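Service request form, structural biology core

Requester: graduate student, group of Dr. S.
Request type: structure prediction, single chain
Budget code: on file
Notes: please return the result as structure tokens.

Sequence provided:
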Amino acid sequence: MKNIAILVPESAVLAAIVDPRYMFTAVNEFLKSAGQPPLFHVQLVGLQKEVKLSEGLFSVHADVVLEKARKPDLIIIPAISGNLEYAIKRNSDFLPWVVQQYKNGSEVASLCLGAFLLAATGLVDGKKCSTHWLFVNEFKAMFPQVTLVDNKIITEQNGLYSSGGASAYWNLLLHLVEKYTNREMAILASKFFVLDINRITQSPFSIFKGQKIHNDPDILKIQDYIEKNFQEKITVDQLAETFGIGRRTLERRFKKATHNTVVEYIQSVKIEASKKQLEVSRKTVSEVMYEVGYTDNKAFRDVFRKVAGVSPLEYRNKYNKEIFA
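Core staff response, request fulfilled:
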């Protein structure tokens, strides 16, 4: 029997508590239907027996309080919401317990913004972690020692797991089901919950927002310049000359402030503009390519796939309803 401890933090997202419980209890039913014993013992674990969520709109009744929880094989940290620094402080009593259980052999999985609580334990320092694409800048600012892979649906390293944004945690739950049971059971679960078992990236769903939460006014001016002139061919040398900053100094300060190289930032701005065109217009991929300042078809498609996770054509087919009208 595998003991699954689903934490019930204050500021938690209710669905991120209910859904993993539903997943593992459903797999137990699948196993019983196949004449096999149930595999998972699922406990909701809180700092107190009743936790109010969504400003008191919902209450979750934990099965046990922290000190009475069974020794877990797997700890699931659900997504949290609101002010994330405040949420971490409100739930700080969970952190040493999670660390101790991990040292005793438990695995730990964070769902979406639960990555902030996982990172606060220090367990993923120097390791890979994923979270919701919208909170990438905030995560990097709070936990620079963690290697954030913001395009991934799932990360797994040394018994530590994380998932990308929102519903992406279902893919992590499927991954854990497969690990603890087998591929056949994971496929059955994916069919029951109507999930794409092979989804591996959240890039097609992300919206690039310039990383402007920093205190370098010169870099802010350069970011604004790039965003207003993305149709042009912008080079690092040109920016250095225009703003009177040495190239090496510019590149160093830009990377420190935005966590991107200048070239990566230019590419992201251009690709975000092209995504918007592909979503709402009838323009061809080539027309969109020229509008955002690319002239090389292969280079544009390569960069688009790198940033968005799919080709320009696949992206347009996914999001542009006009082409089907």
